[in-house]
Specification:
elongated, about 290 residues, 8-stranded antiparallel beta barrel, mainly beta, two-stranded antiparallel ribbon
Protein backbone atom coordinates (compact mmCIF):
# COMPACT_ATOMS: atom_id res chain seq x y z
CA UNK A 1 0.00 0.00 0.00
CA UNK A 2 2.76 2.42 0.92
CA UNK A 3 4.60 1.51 -2.26
CA UNK A 4 1.43 2.26 -4.29
CA UNK A 5 1.04 5.69 -2.62
CA UNK A 6 4.67 6.59 -3.28
CA UNK A 7 4.43 5.60 -6.96
CA UNK A 8 1.15 7.51 -7.33
CA UNK A 9 2.70 10.62 -5.74
CA UNK A 10 5.72 10.47 -8.05
CA UNK A 11 3.44 10.28 -11.11
CA UNK A 12 0.93 12.97 -10.02
CA UNK A 13 3.43 15.57 -8.75
CA UNK A 14 4.83 16.66 -12.14
CA UNK A 15 1.33 16.61 -13.69
CA UNK A 16 -0.14 18.78 -10.94
CA UNK A 17 2.85 21.13 -11.03
CA UNK A 18 2.59 21.37 -14.82
CA UNK A 19 -1.12 22.14 -14.71
CA UNK A 20 -0.67 24.58 -11.84
CA UNK A 21 2.02 26.47 -13.83
CA UNK A 22 -0.29 27.07 -16.76
CA UNK A 23 -3.18 27.77 -14.45
CA UNK A 24 -1.21 30.45 -12.64
CA UNK A 25 -0.21 32.05 -15.97
CA UNK A 26 -3.82 31.84 -17.15
CA UNK A 27 -5.12 33.54 -14.01
CA UNK A 28 -2.77 36.53 -14.23
CA UNK A 29 -4.91 38.22 -16.85
CA UNK A 30 -2.95 37.22 -19.94
CA UNK A 31 -5.71 34.85 -21.05
CA UNK A 32 -9.10 36.38 -20.27
CA UNK A 33 -11.69 34.05 -21.75
CA UNK A 34 -14.89 32.99 -20.17
CA UNK A 35 -15.11 29.53 -21.72
CA UNK A 36 -12.28 27.24 -22.65
CA UNK A 37 -12.88 23.90 -24.35
CA UNK A 38 -10.89 21.84 -21.92
CA UNK A 39 -9.88 22.38 -18.33
CA UNK A 40 -6.63 24.19 -17.72
CA UNK A 41 -6.36 22.18 -14.53
CA UNK A 42 -5.63 19.05 -16.52
CA UNK A 43 -2.60 17.91 -18.37
CA UNK A 44 -4.50 18.28 -21.66
CA UNK A 45 -4.16 22.08 -21.49
CA UNK A 46 -0.62 21.93 -22.82
CA UNK A 47 -1.44 19.38 -25.44
CA UNK A 48 -0.98 20.22 -29.09
CA UNK A 49 -4.23 18.40 -29.83
CA UNK A 50 -6.36 21.05 -28.08
CA UNK A 51 -8.78 22.03 -30.87
CA UNK A 52 -9.91 25.54 -30.06
CA UNK A 53 -10.61 28.12 -27.38
CA UNK A 54 -13.21 30.82 -26.88
CA UNK A 55 -11.13 34.01 -26.73
CA UNK A 56 -13.01 37.12 -25.65
CA UNK A 57 -16.25 35.19 -26.05
CA UNK A 58 -15.58 34.40 -29.73
CA UNK A 59 -14.31 31.19 -31.19
CA UNK A 60 -10.60 31.17 -31.92
CA UNK A 61 -8.64 28.35 -33.43
CA UNK A 62 -4.98 29.28 -33.40
CA UNK A 63 -2.27 26.82 -34.25
CA UNK A 64 0.08 26.12 -31.42
CA UNK A 65 3.03 26.54 -33.75
CA UNK A 66 2.05 30.14 -34.62
CA UNK A 67 2.11 31.48 -31.08
CA UNK A 68 5.64 30.44 -30.17
CA UNK A 69 5.08 31.43 -26.55
CA UNK A 70 4.11 28.10 -24.91
CA UNK A 71 3.80 24.93 -26.99
CA UNK A 72 0.30 23.61 -27.27
CA UNK A 73 -1.55 26.74 -26.13
CA UNK A 74 -4.26 28.46 -28.14
CA UNK A 75 -4.05 31.98 -26.73
CA UNK A 76 -1.96 35.02 -27.48
CA UNK A 77 0.68 35.73 -24.90
CA UNK A 78 1.12 39.46 -24.15
CA UNK A 79 3.56 41.47 -26.26
CA UNK A 80 4.79 45.02 -26.16
CA UNK A 81 2.75 47.36 -28.34
CA UNK A 82 4.93 49.86 -30.15
CA UNK A 83 3.91 53.46 -29.37
CA UNK A 84 2.54 55.56 -32.19
CA UNK A 85 4.71 58.29 -33.64
CA UNK A 86 3.35 61.46 -32.17
CA UNK A 87 4.35 65.07 -31.64
CA UNK A 88 6.43 66.05 -28.64
CA UNK A 89 4.28 68.53 -26.73
CA UNK A 90 6.02 71.16 -24.63
CA UNK A 91 9.50 70.70 -26.04
CA UNK A 92 12.05 72.95 -27.70
CA UNK A 93 12.81 72.74 -31.41
CA UNK A 94 15.51 74.15 -33.65
CA UNK A 95 15.42 74.30 -37.41
CA UNK A 96 16.44 75.82 -40.70
CA UNK A 97 14.50 76.79 -43.84
CA UNK A 98 15.47 77.42 -47.43
CA UNK A 99 13.22 80.21 -48.71
CA UNK A 100 12.19 81.07 -52.25
CA UNK A 101 10.75 84.59 -52.38
CA UNK A 102 9.18 87.05 -54.76
CA UNK A 103 8.96 90.76 -53.97
CA UNK A 104 6.76 93.51 -55.35
CA UNK A 105 8.12 97.07 -55.72
CA UNK A 106 6.61 100.46 -56.08
CA UNK A 107 7.40 102.22 -59.37
CA UNK A 108 10.12 104.76 -58.72
CA UNK A 109 12.12 106.49 -61.48
CA UNK A 110 15.84 107.08 -60.95
CA UNK A 111 18.98 108.33 -62.69
CA UNK A 112 22.53 107.05 -62.17
CA UNK A 113 25.39 109.25 -63.33
CA UNK A 114 27.46 107.98 -66.21
CA UNK A 115 30.59 106.06 -65.27
CA UNK A 116 32.29 106.36 -68.66
CA UNK A 117 33.97 109.56 -69.75
CA UNK A 118 31.56 111.29 -72.12
CA UNK A 119 29.10 108.47 -71.39
CA UNK A 120 25.38 108.78 -70.90
CA UNK A 121 23.54 108.73 -67.59
CA UNK A 122 21.68 105.54 -66.79
CA UNK A 123 17.93 106.20 -66.57
CA UNK A 124 15.50 103.55 -65.39
CA UNK A 125 12.91 102.70 -62.70
CA UNK A 126 12.39 100.10 -59.97
CA UNK A 127 10.55 97.78 -62.35
CA UNK A 128 13.98 96.57 -63.45
CA UNK A 129 14.97 95.48 -59.93
CA UNK A 130 15.35 91.75 -59.41
CA UNK A 131 12.11 90.49 -57.86
CA UNK A 132 12.95 86.85 -57.13
CA UNK A 133 15.45 85.88 -54.46
CA UNK A 134 16.48 83.05 -52.17
CA UNK A 135 17.29 83.21 -48.47
CA UNK A 136 18.13 81.13 -45.43
CA UNK A 137 16.15 81.19 -42.17
CA UNK A 138 17.24 79.87 -38.76
CA UNK A 139 14.76 79.48 -35.92
CA UNK A 140 14.08 78.19 -32.43
CA UNK A 141 10.60 77.20 -31.26
CA UNK A 142 8.59 76.14 -28.25
CA UNK A 143 5.28 74.26 -28.31
CA UNK A 144 3.76 74.41 -24.82
CA UNK A 145 0.34 73.14 -25.95
CA UNK A 146 -0.87 70.58 -28.45
CA UNK A 147 -2.37 73.24 -30.72
CA UNK A 148 -0.25 76.33 -29.99
CA UNK A 149 3.43 77.15 -30.44
CA UNK A 150 5.77 80.10 -30.91
CA UNK A 151 8.89 80.44 -33.03
CA UNK A 152 11.66 83.07 -33.13
CA UNK A 153 13.50 83.43 -36.43
CA UNK A 154 16.36 85.18 -38.21
CA UNK A 155 16.43 85.29 -41.99
CA UNK A 156 18.93 86.68 -44.47
CA UNK A 157 18.88 86.69 -48.24
CA UNK A 158 21.64 85.06 -50.28
CA UNK A 159 23.78 86.96 -52.78
CA UNK A 160 21.76 87.85 -55.83
CA UNK A 161 23.08 90.18 -58.55
CA UNK A 162 21.51 90.98 -61.87
CA UNK A 163 23.42 92.56 -64.76
CA UNK A 164 21.12 94.91 -66.66
CA UNK A 165 23.20 96.39 -69.44
CA UNK A 166 26.68 97.14 -70.78
CA UNK A 167 27.81 100.33 -72.53
CA UNK A 168 31.01 100.75 -74.50
CA UNK A 169 32.76 102.98 -77.02
CA UNK A 170 34.74 101.53 -79.88
CA UNK A 171 37.43 104.20 -79.70
CA UNK A 172 38.05 103.60 -75.98
CA UNK A 173 39.28 100.39 -74.30
CA UNK A 174 36.65 101.09 -71.67
CA UNK A 175 33.16 99.80 -71.03
CA UNK A 176 30.50 100.27 -68.33
CA UNK A 177 28.27 97.67 -66.77
CA UNK A 178 25.16 98.20 -64.68
CA UNK A 179 24.20 95.79 -61.86
CA UNK A 180 21.20 95.48 -59.58
CA UNK A 181 21.67 94.00 -56.13
CA UNK A 182 18.71 93.25 -53.85
CA UNK A 183 19.02 91.96 -50.30
CA UNK A 184 17.24 91.97 -46.98
CA UNK A 185 17.50 90.73 -43.40
CA UNK A 186 14.66 90.10 -40.98
CA UNK A 187 14.16 88.85 -37.43
CA UNK A 188 10.95 88.39 -35.48
CA UNK A 189 8.44 86.08 -33.83
CA UNK A 190 5.64 83.87 -35.20
CA UNK A 191 2.61 82.49 -33.37
CA UNK A 192 1.73 79.04 -34.75
CA UNK A 193 -1.54 77.14 -34.61
CA UNK A 194 -1.42 73.37 -35.17
CA UNK A 195 -4.22 71.11 -36.43
CA UNK A 196 -3.14 67.45 -36.08
CA UNK A 197 -4.56 65.36 -38.93
CA UNK A 198 -3.10 62.02 -37.84
CA UNK A 199 -0.02 60.71 -36.05
CA UNK A 200 2.25 61.99 -38.81
CA UNK A 201 0.86 65.25 -40.22
CA UNK A 202 -0.02 68.64 -38.73
CA UNK A 203 -1.58 71.51 -40.62
CA UNK A 204 -0.11 74.86 -39.52
CA UNK A 205 -1.37 78.45 -39.61
CA UNK A 206 0.87 81.32 -38.52
CA UNK A 207 0.78 85.03 -37.81
CA UNK A 208 3.84 86.99 -36.84
CA UNK A 209 5.79 90.22 -36.91
CA UNK A 210 9.29 90.93 -38.16
CA UNK A 211 11.79 93.76 -38.50
CA UNK A 212 12.62 93.99 -42.21
CA UNK A 213 15.75 95.74 -43.47
CA UNK A 214 15.61 95.67 -47.28
CA UNK A 215 17.97 97.25 -49.76
CA UNK A 216 18.16 97.55 -53.54
CA UNK A 217 21.23 99.02 -55.17
CA UNK A 218 21.84 100.04 -58.76
CA UNK A 219 25.53 100.38 -59.55
CA UNK A 220 27.12 101.47 -62.83
CA UNK A 221 30.84 100.73 -63.04
CA UNK A 222 33.41 101.66 -65.70
CA UNK A 223 36.16 99.17 -66.52
CA UNK A 224 39.19 99.19 -68.77
CA UNK A 225 39.97 96.09 -70.85
CA UNK A 226 38.59 93.58 -68.31
CA UNK A 227 36.07 93.53 -65.49
CA UNK A 228 38.96 93.20 -63.01
CA UNK A 229 40.26 96.69 -63.82
CA UNK A 230 37.77 98.97 -62.13
CA UNK A 231 38.08 102.63 -63.11
CA UNK A 232 35.16 104.44 -61.52
CA UNK A 233 31.53 103.85 -60.53
CA UNK A 234 28.32 105.57 -59.55
CA UNK A 235 25.25 104.14 -57.84
CA UNK A 236 21.72 104.63 -56.54
CA UNK A 237 20.41 102.90 -53.40
CA UNK A 238 16.87 102.25 -52.15
CA UNK A 239 16.25 101.02 -48.62
CA UNK A 240 13.41 100.17 -46.26
CA UNK A 241 13.56 99.42 -42.55
CA UNK A 242 10.16 98.58 -41.09
CA UNK A 243 8.27 96.31 -38.73
CA UNK A 244 5.74 94.32 -40.74
CA UNK A 245 3.03 91.72 -40.16
CA UNK A 246 3.21 88.36 -41.90
CA UNK A 247 0.78 85.46 -42.23
CA UNK A 248 1.26 81.95 -43.50
CA UNK A 249 0.05 78.39 -43.73
CA UNK A 250 1.42 74.96 -44.48
CA UNK A 251 2.02 71.47 -43.15
CA UNK A 252 4.53 69.58 -41.03
CA UNK A 253 5.34 65.89 -41.52
CA UNK A 254 6.77 63.85 -38.64
CA UNK A 255 9.59 61.73 -40.08
CA UNK A 256 10.43 60.34 -36.63
CA UNK A 257 9.70 61.11 -33.00
CA UNK A 258 12.09 64.06 -33.07
CA UNK A 259 12.51 65.10 -36.73
CA UNK A 260 9.96 66.89 -38.92
CA UNK A 261 9.84 68.27 -42.45
CA UNK A 262 7.91 71.50 -42.96
CA UNK A 263 6.61 73.41 -45.96
CA UNK A 264 5.06 76.85 -45.48
CA UNK A 265 3.80 79.70 -47.64
CA UNK A 266 3.97 83.26 -46.28
CA UNK A 267 2.87 86.72 -47.29
CA UNK A 268 4.31 89.92 -45.75
CA UNK A 269 3.10 93.45 -46.33
CA UNK A 270 6.07 95.83 -46.17
CA UNK A 271 4.55 99.01 -47.63
CA UNK A 272 7.89 100.80 -47.54
CA UNK A 273 9.50 103.46 -49.71
CA UNK A 274 10.15 101.04 -52.58
CA UNK A 275 9.01 97.55 -51.47
CA UNK A 276 5.31 96.70 -51.23
CA UNK A 277 5.13 93.03 -50.15
CA UNK A 278 7.02 89.73 -50.14
CA UNK A 279 5.62 86.29 -50.99
CA UNK A 280 7.64 83.27 -49.81
CA UNK A 281 7.70 79.49 -49.88
CA UNK A 282 9.70 77.85 -47.07
CA UNK A 283 11.15 74.33 -47.12
CA UNK A 284 12.74 73.26 -43.86
CA UNK A 285 13.35 70.78 -41.08
CA UNK A 286 12.87 70.89 -37.29
CA UNK A 287 14.54 68.83 -34.61
CA UNK A 288 12.48 68.49 -31.41
CA UNK A 289 14.35 67.89 -28.17
Amino acid sequence: MKRFLVITALIMFPLVSHAQYYGDYYNTGYYNTGNYNGSYNTGNYGSTSQPSANYNNSATSQSATTNNYFPGTNYYAPHKIQPKKQREIGQISVGADYVLGYSSYKTVDFVVDAALTDGQNYVSDTKDLDRSFSSLSLNIGWRPLRYIGIEAFYQTSLDDNKVTYTESYSHYPEFARGEYTTSYKVYGLDLLGYVPINDYIDFIASIGVGKYDAEAKVKVTAYEDTSYNNLRSSSKTFSDSKWAWRVGGGAEIWLSKHLTFRIMGRWTKIDGDFMKYITEINFGVRYHF
